[in-house]
Amino acid sequence: MSEKALKRKKIDFNSVSSVLYPVLFGILIFILWECGVLNTVLKTDTNILPAPTRIAGIMSENSSKISENLSATMTVIIWGLIAGSFIGYMAAVFATRFPNFGKGALTVLSVFNAIPIVALAPVFNNWTKDVSSEASVRSTVAKILVVTVVCAASMSINAYRGLTELKPFSLDLMKSYAADNMTVFKKLRFHNSIPYIFTALKVSVPSSVITALVSEYFAEYRMGIGRQIRDNISIAQYSAGWAYIAVACLIGILMYIILIIFEGIFTKRHRK
């Protein structure tokens, strides 16, 4: 077997093992959890830490209620992620075009991102109290704004790097052809920023889920996965709380998988 074939085989094995080992570890934890070994190790009863099959049963029994709360949470996540990513990218474009002023905008977004979510959520709840007479609308707008702020920061920083860290002499080549700023952006800067956009989204997607869940803890309207986790645990309904926690985990995992799939598609097209 040639050296090239051996190297390819080694890469394939590393790719498989990087996925296989975490999956096997997850299966092992699941088996130990289901058999009650985790309860023994952690010294907790099945009421506080119910078995996975019990959690799945509760999810099935309360599917309609979970779906309603899931819809409310996904609305916040999706719109906040879209708005934050768009604002962050536009801020990066502005900083690239007007570096003397634009970098200040990036700094402001970074400062907002440094503020804890538990501090941002009540502030935005207060700011949006006059948005609508409907509590559901006011609450949704406030939560979307919190997610938007968090997502905008990571996108702006990464997109700015993609728009400015160009290949050597590529910008000089464009200028030698008398290309205007819009042509440079479309032909050079935008394409160079695509990998950085996905890098930002790998941070923003999990952050948007966490931010939406935490924002729901402080929301005026009692709807959403995060709020149901809080309400069920506060009345010692731990099994129901775990069911909503499982739904929250599935949201994050599925959204991240979808992102990785889209990244693979766009990366292949970008290379072509």
Can you tell me about this structure?
With 272 residues, the protein is mainly α. It has two domains: 1-44; 47-271, MetI-like (MetI-like fold). It is 84% helix and 0% strand. It contains eleven helices and no strands. The chain has helices at residues 3-34, 37-42, 52-61, 63-97, 99-114, 117-127, 135-164, 170-176, 181-217, 225-234, 238-271. The longest helix has 37 residues, at 181-217. The protein is globular, with a radius of gyration of 23 Å. The mean pLDDT is 80.
Tell me briefly what this model is.
This protein is mainly α and 272 residues long. Helices cover 84% and strands 0% of the residues.
Question: What attributes characterize this protein structure?
Answer:
single chain; 272 residues; mainly alpha; 2 domains
| CATH homologous superfamily heading of the largest domain | MetI-like
C-alpha Rg, in Å?
A: 23 Å
Globular, elongated, flat, extended or rod-shaped: what is the shape? globular
CATH topology of the largest domain: MetI-like fold
Helix-and-strand structural type: mainly alpha
**Mean of pLDDT:** 80
Tally of helical segments: 11
Q: How are the elements arranged and paired?
A:
Blueprint: H1 3-34, H2 37-42, H3 52-61, H4 63-97, H5 99-114, H6 117-127, H7 135-164, H8 170-176, H9 181-217, H10 225-234, H11 238-271
